[in-house]
Design a protein that fits this description.
The complex is a heterodimer of chains A (332) and B (427). Chain A has 332 residues and is α/β, with parallel strands linked by helices. Chain A contains twelve helices and ten strands. In chain A, β2, α2 and β3 form a beta-alpha-beta unit. The relative contact order of chain B is 0.17. In chain B, α1 packs across α2. Classes of the chains: A alpha/beta (332), B alpha/beta (427). At the A-B interface, α4 and α7 of A face α6 of B.
């Protein structure tokens, strides 16, 4: 993959063997660290994700989004382009899906046009896993229903790391609609594997006590846990996924769980405020906090491109190795 | 005169407490004698050597979806009844959820004619409880009985309307016919696709909570007690259901229950594959529930094992988990799946297994079968209990090839199926 005109001597890590990125639950701490390290290298080399490299020139990335997305789709597109790859965009509205074709057949059709990665988002959990069995190319999960959103989890962790916070001993609270949050389901595994203490906080109808069986702290009062938290990740209330409203009113939700100036005053002085976006100002976060000095929400967006560049590069390299192709980048 | 002698086999018939090597003579479709002397054999008696085999009454399935008319891309009456024989079922009760549903005497007659033409397993008809299976008004139950329906069910749709359940149980007392309900409270089940528990939490999939089943069972058994009607709940899948059924049985209320083989052998952890072949109804539950179900089959709290045969064409199962339909093909694997799971874990012996899969379901449905006593119909199967085999979906007689057991190694296989003294299936 390292061509003559290449501008980055990036060694391919021997420990990386995966050609799909489906979730963080099944990744090891070492694999997560490789992804974060690679993302940091790429971010530095591209001067904060603005400069273009040619590491993946000649390759094509297909964005198959069966569910609406703005930031993730654009982030993957830019990541591919910043590494010199071409992109194909697909949306289910107005497509063959509307004509009755299954998403698997749609994906196979796009793959047959010669793509190296399929980045997929779908409302049903497990669809990337299904595609990884049906397709030969690399599959990246860009969000499968409420299951996982691995690159979001990785960009959150990269952002925490960039603020000089070691994961061991760190207390991170995921606050909000955990039941419907793929961001939560990726963050919890990634953070746990790297040694952080994870608190899952929200209304009892959106936070199952079963999380405790899996080794996580469960809380229903943000005010009680707030003084212990080093990082707060405020998750959006996903009204569109809820069958019946799990709390009495938005007003009540905001009163109990919104991060506002008053709560900021009772937080640790170096607390990081994160949100995967899109944010509902006034629901889970007030404008003064979203735009305040502790907020790293826009840094997360920038890191998203770096993480996705890392994922594309690593998966494609592993696929080439598996196929017996040329060594990827400089030797490890 | 047609005469068949099955000899040298191990006759396992729980209805007579037989478990011994014996000779079985069937003349003109009816069991004529056990251990007849050679002098009793008519001339031209056909002899079938059953050495090393179990000779048992043919299995009886309480609920088989045949999908014809209307959904014959999944299964037909001919393919389903042939698959039944291959799995050891000489009698099946076909479900009412065809299109149109079996809620008229004409629809019953259609199945009977097609069944006669198929000339495979005996097919008994389950009529709808409600018109069009809408769960609102009673279907013409009396006319359906006259046409030949032996039981009533809207399954796989649960009977959601409590008033309808009560009326149906009361009304059916006139005909002494059972009401079958697949117990579930729909508003609690919601859009669930798998057991609600730790696995569904991690996978982010909508869960089917156990209380959706428990509450429906509680309501059903209370209404059975109040009306004196004949109620069969099943398939059940939860500890709560078992607990309720055990308690009402101890109080003498006549309620029966059944379970599916896959609920005895697999857990919800299988859904980690996100493979729609594991999407079944009731869902695969967690290990604790599975253990309790096995024990309840063993101690008789659960009376019967039914196949849960819900065939769905492969293209329908190849979709994502939210869209793929529930169901699997199971006629041809049920006996071996139960034998592999339950005999080897010492929950059952062969005699009790035959009781749960033949004698008890025949009694619940009030149909002939389940016994090889003299005078009973000659519906017999031969089983090779030692035969180990790999599930090959390409060899299925069912039109449906979707089963989570594909490629699995099972032990125990049916080698012959005999209906009314006629050998209709040989493997």
């Amino acid at each position: 993959m390292m061509s003559a005109e290449n501008d980055l001597d990036l060694p391919f890590p021997a420990a990386w063997t995966r050609s799909h990125l489906l979730d963080l639950e099944t990744l090891s701490a070492e694999e997560i660290t490789i992804l974060l390290d690679t993302a940091q290298r790429l971010k530095d080399a591209t001067e904060n994700c603005r400069r273009k490299l040619s590491l993946l020139s000649g390759k094509t990335c297909a964005n198959l989004f069966f569910e609406n997305s703005t930031r993730t789709r654009n982030s993957f597109s830019l990541a591919a382009k910043r590494l010199g790859a071409d992109t194909v965009e697909f949306s289910s509205s107005g497509s063959s899906i509307a004509k009755g074709e299954t998403f698997v057949d749609t994906a196979k059709t796009i793959e047959a046009m010669g793509v190296d990665w399929v980045v997929t988002r779908h409302s049903t959990p497990g669809t990337p896993h299904l595609l990884s069995r049906e397709l030969d190319c690399c599959v990246l999960n860009a969000g499968d229903g409420p299951h996982e959103h691995p690159t979001q989890g990785l960009l959150d962790m990269l952002t925490i790391r960039q603020h000089g916070k070691p994961f061991v001993g760190l207390t991170v609270a995921l606050v909000g609609d955990i039941a419907h949050s793929r961001t939560a389901r990726s963050n919890i595994w990634g953070l746990k594997k790297l040694g952080a203490h994870v608190i899952i906080c929200g209304p009892a109808t959106l936070v199952s006590p079963r999380w405790e069986e899996l080794g996580f702290e469960v809380a229903h009062s943000l005010d009680e846990i707030l003084p212990r938290c080093d990082v707060l990740n405020l998750l959006r209330v996903q009204f569109e996924r809820q069958v019946a409203r799990p709390f009495p009113s938005i007003h009540e939700y905001a009163a109990l769980y919104a991060m506002n100036g008053e709560r900021m005053a009772r937080s640790k002085s170096d607390i990081l405020i994160m949100a995967p976006g899109p944010i509902n100002r006034g629901v889970e976060i007030t404008p003064e906090v979203a735009d305040g000095p502790h907020s790293v929400i826009l840094e997360q967006v920038t890191n998203g491109i770096a993480v996705r560049m890392a994922a594309l590069w690593l998966l494609s390299g592993a696929a080439e190795r598996a196929a017996g192709g040329a060594a990827t980048g400089a030797s490890a | 005169m047609n005469s068949l002698l099955i000899e040298n086999g191990r006759l396992v018939d729980p209805s007579q407490q037989h478990d011994r090597v014996a000779r079985l003579l069937i003349i003109d479709g009816t069991v004529k004698a056990i251990d007849p002397s050679d002098g009793e054999l008519p001339k031209d008696t056909q002899r079938l050597d059953a050495s090393g085999r179990i000779v048992a009454p043919g299995l009886v399935d309480l609920s088989t979806e045949l999908r014809e008319p209307g959904r014959d891309e999944d299964e037909t009456i001919a393919s389903g009844s042939q698959a039944a024989l291959a799995g050891g079922y000489t009698s099946i009760l076909c479900s009412s959820n065809t299109h149109p549903p079996i809620d008229t005497p004409g629809a019953v007659e259609f199945v009977r004619q097609k069944a006669a033409k198929a000339h495979a397993a005996r097919i008994y008809v389950t009529g709808c409880v409600s018109k069009q299976r809408r769960g609102e008004e009673l279907a013409e139950l009396g006319l359906l009985v006259e046409a030949g329906a032996v039981a009533f069910s809207d399954s796989p749709a649960p009977l959601a309307n409590s008033a309808l359940v009560k009326r149906a149980l009361e009304y059916c007392r006139m005909f002494d016919r059972p009401i079958f309900d697949r117990p579930e409270v729909p508003e609690l089940a919601g859009r669930g696709v798998m057991h609600e528990g730790r696995e569904s939490l991690v996978l982010g999939l909508n869960g089917l909570p156990t209380e959706a089943e428990d509450l429906a069972v509680a309501r059903d058994v209370r209404l059975a007690e109040a009306t004196g009607g004949r109620l069969h709940v099943g398939p059940v899948s939860t500890m709560g259901s078992i607990d309720l059924i055990r308690r009402v049985k101890s109080r003498g209320i006549k309620v029966t229950a059944s379970v599916c083989p896959h609920n005895l052998s697999m857990t919800d952890e299988q859904l980690r594959s996100f493979d729609a072949r594991f999407k079944v109804h009731p869902p695969l539950r967690s290990e604790r529930h599975v253990e309790m179900l096995r024990a309840a089959v063993s101690d008789g709290t659960i009376d019967a094992i039914q196949t849960g045969h819900m065939p769905r064409a492969l293209e329908k199962k190849m979709d994502d988990l939210d869209l793929a339909p529930f169901g699997m093909t199971s006629l041809e694997t049920s006996l071996a799946a139960v034998a592999t799971t339950m005999l080897h874990s010492d929950h059952l012996d062969w005699s009790t297994l035959i009781q749960r899969m033949s004698t008890a379901p025949a009694a619940i449905a009030g149909i002939p079968g389940g016994s090889l006593a003299v005078g009973q119909s000659g519906d017999v199967i031969l089983i090779d209990p030692e035969r180990s085999w790999t599930v090959d979906v390409n060899a299925f007689h069912s039109r449906c090839s979707s089963t989570p057991l594909a490629g699995s190694q099972l032990q125990g296989q049916v080698t012959h199926a005999i209906v009314g003294g006629e050998i209709r299936y040989v493997r």
